[in-house]
Structures are given as structure tokens and as C-alpha cells.
Design a protein that fits this description.
single chain, mainly beta, seven-stranded mixed sheet, four-stranded antiparallel sheet, 11 strands, globular
Length: 113
């Protein structure tokens, strides 16, 4: 059993920034690849990006490349999603995922124009 907890969502203006955090109490995140997903109202959940377990390589969907950055903090056992240059179309509930099995409860991100 893995429990994932996202935090850091909120309201931002277009062009602003937010940093989301994924924590896993009781588990060691550095051993696993972690994905970030989002789901906007009325739309299917989509992948935003991920970070590998081995060398922390990162991958992003085209819509967020150059704006979003995924990183690890080994000391705090967390994975972050730094979101810069936010756009209204980034509005969604954001989830972190481990192994395509474990999901957090999500954190709401709302970007106003």
C-alpha cells in the first residue's frame, strides 16, 4: 500500500507560477518513477510528465514543455511539479502517480485569465 499526497494547488493568474508537491508517507519515492497527471472538467485525465527512478530523467507532454519542471527532493522524500507561465488551459485537478497503480487525492489548480 502506497499513500500519495499532493499539495500546493490554488489560484494563480495567467503567467504566474505554482509548485505542486507529491509526498508519500511511509514510502521512499526515490525508488520509483513518478508521474504527474491532470484532469480538467469534462475531459479525460492526461499525462503531464514524469521523472524516472534511475537517473531522474524527465519527460513532458508538448503542451507544458518549457514551462513545467519535475524534480525530486531526496532529503524530504518528495517530488515537485514547478509550473511556470501558467495558462487558463492548465486549470485542472493535478495528481501524482506511482507505478500506474497508486494515485493521490489530487490538488486543484485554477488559472485565471
Amino acid at each position: 500500500q502506497v499513500r500519495l499526497v499532493e499539495s500546493g494547488g490554488g489560484l494563480a493568474q495567467s503567467g504566474g507560477s505554482l509548485r505542486l508537491t507529491c509526498a508519500a508517507p511511509g514510502s521512499t519515492l526515490e525508488y520509483y518513477a513518478i508521474g504527474w497527471f491532470r484532469q480538467a472538467p469534462g475531459k479525460e485525465r492526461e499525462g503531464v510528465g514524469c521523472i524516472s527512478s534511475s537517473n531522474s530523467s524527465t519527460y513532458y507532454q508538448d503542451a507544458v514543455k518549457g514551462r513545467f519542471i519535475i524534480s525530486r527532493d531526496g532529503a524530504k522524500n518528495t517530488v515537485h511539479l514547478q509550473m511556470n507561465g501558467l495558462k487558463p488551459e492548465d486549470t485542472a485537478v493535478y495528481y501524482c502517480n506511482l507505478g500506474n497503480i497508486w494515485w493521490g487525492q489530487g490538488t486543484q489548480v485554477t488559472v485565471s485569465s
